[in-house]
Design a protein that fits this description.
Transferase(Phosphotransferase), domain 1, Phosphorylase Kinase, domain 1, manganese, CD59, transmembrane helix, ATP binding, 3-stranded antiparallel beta sheet, 511 residues, glycoprotein
Length: 511
């Protein structure tokens, strides 16, 4: 297309009621059109991620985003063949434009105009003609919901899950202020600190109304996008097809376990869709703009109080996972099995929350049933405990999995301590064992260092100069005992950190 295009979009008012959400199920997205493949083009780049005034990609993009309480923001940049921003229809909060010639996005201007649909009087004779299709649509929605319920129950039986009747239909309480429309869906019927997934049909409806805005992370698992749902930011984790079991496991845990907690990533919805002849697996959660603890530590150095605030909140999340809560508002004990700084997110209040339950293991004392799921994926080798690396872990004992979490949590605390300022001294961010193994260590690399040489990361000497941080250093060592059952429990880690944290000043972020 030519430069200088001015595009105006006229849209109806947002659908605000739960009934309309249900009626809109499956209708919120049109048939996507996949952009053509071709040589890279140079595009104008104007967004927070630009490293210059231009960029190169498969096509050029312009995105107009309107978030509640803010003025519309227009961004220009490049698209790539793995992104899907240009494939769906715009909404009342997001408009996008894609083109395929050099600098074709330079002078494009987009508009979003929400105009009410005029009401027209209907003749009485036309009423059956209108009600007929509406009733037919309602019947289809109900039949679809019953079909999805039947498939879901079949999958649960295959994995040996026997949820209590009605438990997976409870609606959680939002864990943060300002959830507005999400807060309308995530009501306050549950007690504080508890919660579970939304009703399954509502989850699918919400998922189909999310507009993807920007890709904020990529990895072996797939991609994480910031999306908008009725003007509110949400995180959308799109799993790769080879990691379907991780998506299913997280979906299963969030929908059958009362897991709402300030220091566990807040779950909103899960959906499986077929698009462009491929299956897409979405997990929609709360969005945290600071990103992961791994990202946060690379950008910021920490005063001791902030370091302890991050550590205490992460420990609270782990302690909540590990504990079994009895009663109708209870939960089984859960071991994470892939704890690392990339799977801990930093919230706007500078507290942490634990994410990625795709490898989690559950256990209930009453039935003594150990649910290890059906996921062939293993944890992250750099964070594996010695007993995992030398294959001596007792896989039939739930406590064994909790002990491996404590080993990994000690490594996360070590990452935090390197970025903590003591007497004006601080170190660059480095991952655990950075000076002992390659960037992408093999199983054998880690086994030699951890099991044969019995090495652990070097704890910074400067921590000894501070009585509070020296206590933290000692606690990290107690997370790394070679004998798993000698390691601290998550509850003891939490209480010790809380005690240490109470003796230092107000937290600050140092740039």
């Amino acid at each position: 297309m030519e430069n200088g295009i001015h595009r105006t979009m006229t849209l109806g008012p947002p659908r605000r009621s739960l009934l309309m959400l249900l009626l809109a199920s499956g209708l919120a997205r049109g048939d996507p059109v996949k952009p053509p493949r071709g040589p890279l083009v140079t595009c104008t780049c104007e967004n927070p991620h630009c490293k210059g005034s231009t960029c190169q990609g498969a096509w050029c993009t312009v995105v107009l985003v309107r978030e509640e309480g803010r003025h519309p923001q227009e961004h220009r940049g490049c698209g790539n063949l793995h992104e899907e921003l240009c494939w769906g229809r715009p909404t009342e909060f997001v408009s996008h434009y894609c083109c395929y010639s050099p600098l074709c996005n330079h002078n494009v201007s987009l508009e979003l105009t929400a105009t009410p649909t005029p009401e027209q009087p209907q003749e009485v004779g036309q009423l059956p003609l209108i009600l007929g299709p509406v009733l037919a649509l309602l019947v289809l929605v109900v039949l679809g919901a019953l079909g999805l319920w039947h498939v879901r129950r079949k999958q649960e039986k295959q994995l040996g899950r026997h949820s209590e009747a009605g438990e997976s239909r409870l609606i959680p309480k939002p864990s943060e202020q300002g959830d507005s429309m999400l807060g309308d869906l995530l009501n306050s019927d549950c007690t504080t600190g508890s919660g579970s997934g939304l009703p399954f049909l509502v989850q699918r409806t919400v998922a189909r109304q999310v507009a993807l805005v920007e890709c904020v992370g990529k990895g072996r698992y797939g991609e994480v996008w910031r999306g908008l749902w009725h003007g509110e930011s949400v995180a959308v984790k799109i799993f790769s097809s080879r990691d379907e079991q991780s998506w299913f496991r997280e979906t299963e845990i969030y929908n059958t376990v009362l897991l709402r907690h300030d220091n566990i990533l807040g779950f909103i919805a899960s959906d499986m869709t077929s698009r462009n002849s491929s299956t897409q697996l979405w997990l929609i959660t709360h969005y945290h703009e600071h990103g992961s603890l791994y990202d946060f530590l690379q950008r910021h150095t920490l005063e001791p109080q902030l370091a302890l605030r991050l550590a205490v909140s992460a420990a609270c999340g782990l302690a909540h996972l590990h504990v079994e809560i009895f009663g109708t508002q209870g939960k089984p004990a859960i071991a994470h099995r892939d704890l690392k700084s990339r799977n801990v997110l930093v919230k706007s209040n500078l507290q942490c929350c634990i994410a990625d339950l795709g490898l989690a293991v559950m256990h209930s004392q009453g039935s003594d049933y150990l649910d290890i799921g059906n996921n062939p994926r293993v944890g992250t080798k750099r964070y594996m405990a010695p007993e995992v690396l030398d294959e001596q872990i007792r896989t039939d004992c739930f406590e064994s999995y909790k002990w491996t979490d404590i080993w990994a949590f000690g490594l996360v605390l070590w990452e935090i301590t390197r970025r903590t300022i003591v007497n004006g001294i601080v170190e660059d961010y480095r991952p655990p064992f950075y000076d002992m193994v390659p960037n992408d260590p093999s199983f054998e690399d880690m086994k030699k260092v951890v099991c044969v040489d019995q090495q652990t990361p070097t704890i910074p000497n400067r921590l000894a100069a501070d009585p509070v941080l020296s206590g933290l250093a000692q606690m990290i060592r107690e997370c790394w005992y070679p004998n798993p059952c000698a390691r601290l429990t998550a509850l003891r880690v939490k209480k010790t950190l809380q005690k240490l944290s109470s003796s230092v000043e107000t937290p600050k972020v140092m740039h």
